[in-house]
């Protein structure tokens, strides 16, 4: 019997020996970190909100008090926001931040600078012992990083760290700011009115959606004119009218159990200072609706060129049945060309009139970036629970309870005794 192997077997054995002798273990290629101490990423965002491409870019962060910004910073800021319609809202203007900072000294501004020393973004904020919030606090209806490049979550956390913030809480953050939006609790609709096509185009837009708003408001306008006199929308510069509108808003907030954001001295001072401005880049405008000689509604709006923002709306309680707020808005829109109005922001909110008037939508987020997972989880659970209760059949009962709790707390403070009541739901 022959011990020789078949030629095919010998060839297979030789190939196996050769492979074993020359085998080099596979080594996974490691991704080397950037050479710079920090290389933030430029994020291109798709229409669905996902990042399309990521590219590392160097970034330095410089910080100045909001009321002491160098002129070079202001010039760069204006050039940046006027290069794109995305930043047309009055809330992105540096003039608003500097005006707020004179009243709220805690406001600071971070400037984002690339490796060549060219600024590409600004971030206004307030720092309260490491807890950050938007410049202006709850009065801010739009906030975030104002820049030509989007930042990833990692870059956003680095920015907060450079600003001395452990966490940043936001409530009107545009959802395209992915570095913050990844940490959101809620995503809400923000309504807008687009009047670039004129009043007739806006009417046709509402009619195409089956809305009967204009017909309904026309009927109520006729009713109030029969009862009280001719309806007129006029601009006011009177501090007495501003106080009257704030008083209307305060009574409405008390009746509905909302937190009143407008009755504080700082809010009224800010309103007054913005009304004194006469520049088209930013100014505050107080419009009053009169029926005969009786003021029945007020609108406080921020204007930046042809982009306006409805910041405060209030009406006389005795005229509520006439829908005077809607009459004022439609009068403003009917004469939009004369007022210099093309886009009116109504912001987010559960008020019915916003959904009725709006013909364009955007989205804003509420959430928290940075901080402990436990703290974020507890805050998210509280806010979601609050929304669930208010949206349920027990919502009105909850509002009454918290209104009572707030009144008892205020009474106890006046008497000098502490009170451990609940925080009012807004």
Describe the structure.
The structure is a single chain. The chain is an alpha+beta fold and 426 residues long. Among the domains are: 41-187, Aminopeptidase (3-Layer(aba) Sandwich); 196-341, Gcn5-related N-acetyltransferase (GNAT) (Aminopeptidase), CATH 3.40.630.30. It is built from 14 helices and 16 strands. The protein has helices at residues 7-21, 71-81, 94-103, 153-162, 178-181, 199-208, 213-227, 239-256, 265-276, 324-334, 336-339, 352-357, 373-390, 395-414; strands spanning 41-45, 51-56, 60-65, 107-113, 119-128, 131-133, 146-147, 150-151, 167-174, 184-194, 231-236, 283-291, 294-304, 307-315, 343-347, 360-370. The strands form 2 sheets. Strands 3, 4, 5, 6, 7, 9, 10, 11, 12, 13, 14, 15 and 16 form a 13-stranded mixed beta sheet that branches. It has a 3-stranded antiparallel beta sheet with strand order 2-1-8. A hairpin with a 2-residue loop joins strand 5 and strand 6. It is globular, with a radius of gyration of 29 Å. 32% of the residues are buried. Mean pLDDT is 82; it is low at 23-56 and 417-426.
């Amino acid at each position: 019997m022959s011990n020789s192997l078949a030629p095919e077997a010998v060839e297979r054995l030789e190939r196996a020996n050769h492979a074993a002798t020359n085998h080099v273990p596979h080594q996974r290629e490691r991704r080397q970190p950037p050479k710079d101490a920090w290389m933030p990423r430029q994020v291109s965002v798709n229409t669905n909100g996902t990042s399309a491409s990521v590219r590392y870019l160097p970034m330095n962060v410089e910080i100045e008090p909001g009321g002491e910004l160098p002129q070079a910073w202001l010039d760069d800021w204006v050039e940046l926001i006027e290069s794109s319609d995305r930043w047309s809202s009055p809330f992105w203007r540096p003039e608003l931040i500097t005006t707020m900072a004179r009243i709220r000294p805690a406001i600071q501004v971070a400037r984002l600078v690339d490796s060549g020393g060219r600024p590409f973004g600004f971030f206004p904020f307030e720092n309260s012992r490491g807890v950050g919030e938007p410049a202006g606090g709850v009065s801010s209806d739009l906030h975030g990083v104002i820049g030509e490049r989007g930042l990833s979550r990692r870059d956003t956390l680095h920015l907060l760290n450079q600003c001395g913030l452990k966490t940043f809480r936001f409530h009107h953050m545009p959802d395209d700011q992915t570095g913050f939006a990844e940490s959101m609790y809620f995503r809400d609709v923000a309504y807008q009115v687009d009047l670039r096509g004129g009043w007739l185009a806006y009417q046709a837009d509402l009619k195409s959606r089956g809305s009967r708003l204009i017909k309904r408001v026309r009927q109520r306008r006729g009713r109030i004119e029969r009862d009280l006199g001719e309806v007129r929308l006029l601009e006011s510069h009177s501090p007495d009218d501003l106080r009257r509108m704030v008083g209307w808003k305060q009574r409405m907030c008390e009746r509905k159990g909302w937190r009143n954001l407008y009755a504080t001295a700082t809010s009224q001072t800010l309103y007054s200072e913005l009304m004194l401005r006469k520049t088209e880049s930013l100014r505050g405008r107080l419009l009053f609706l009169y029926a005969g000689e009786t003021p029945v509604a007020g609108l406080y709006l921020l204007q930046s060129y042809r982009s306006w923002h409805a910041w405060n709306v209030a009406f006389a309680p005795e005229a509520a049945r006439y829908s005077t707020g809607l009459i004022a808005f439609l009068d403003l829109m009917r004469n939009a060309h004369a007022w210099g109005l093309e886009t009116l922001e109504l912001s987010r909110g559960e008020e019915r009139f916003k959904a009725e008037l709006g013909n364009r939508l955007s989205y804003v987020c509420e959430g928290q970036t940075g901080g402990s997972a436990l703290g974020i989880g507890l805050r998210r659970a509280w806010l979601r629970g609050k929304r669930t209760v208010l949206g349920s059949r027990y919502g009105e009962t909850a509002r009454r309870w918290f209104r009572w709790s707030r009144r008892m707390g205020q009474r106890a403070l006046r008497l000098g005794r502490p009170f451990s009541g609940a925080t009012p739901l807004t």
